[in-house]
Design goal:
The protein is an alpha+beta fold. The chain has 3 helices and 6 strands; from the N terminus they run αααββββββ.
């Protein structure tokens, strides 16, 4: 019996790890297949996410291009009544000077209104206002009975749009005494 028991154990011992190794190889193969499937799924999700990002970027670029292209659409639309008024005034063959003046004043009011709706504001500093180089351009310095470096007269109005100077007001400035 003692001869038989030791000889059986060595025979069983090599068989046990071999069969456990076969089961482990089968488990490993199944796990590998599962991981490969998961990898393929993640790779597909990654590619879809990349495509979504590229599509979003393309749509944003198209939106920016459209907004640049049509940025002045509302401004141009607000000027159409001004054009209509000018054409109507020019269509009158026998207009009197008074009618032309009234029409011109009405058209100027329309134009100013259109500019204001689009945040274009006049820069027309009253006399005595401190000279501001960010909004005014001094043409000359003249002797005046007011504080030095203040506006004496406005030669040409300036304009701003949304806090940005489109054209500075051309002014004469009081010279130091």
């Amino acid at each position: 019996m003692s001869d038989n028991t030791p000889s059986q154990a060595p025979e069983d011992a090599p068989n046990a790890p071999a069969s456990a190794g076969l089961e482990s190889a089968g488990d490993l193969a199944a796990e590998l297949a599962g991981l490969q499937a998961k990898n393929a799924e993640l790779a597909d999700l990654y590619l879809r996410a990349q495509a979504d990002v590229q599509n979003a970027r393309r749509r944003a670029d198209e939106e920016i291009a459209k907004s640049r292209k049509y940025a002045i659409e509302s401004f141009a639309e607000s000027l159409l009544p001004v054009i209509d008024s000018l054409e109507a005034g020019l269509a009158l063959p026998n207009a009197t000077a008074e009618q032309i003046r009234e029409g011109s004043e009405a058209t100027l009011r329309q134009l100013k209104s259109a500019l204001e709706r689009n945040k274009v504001v006049e820069v027309n500093p009253p006399a005595g206002t401190r000279f501001d180089p960010a909004q005014h351009q001094a043409i000359s310095m003249v002797p005046a009975d007011q504080e030095a470096n203040t506006v004496v007269t406005v030669l040409q109005k300036g304009f701003m749009i949304a806090e940005r100077v489109l054209r500075p007001a051309l002014v004469t400035v009081a010279a130091p005494q």
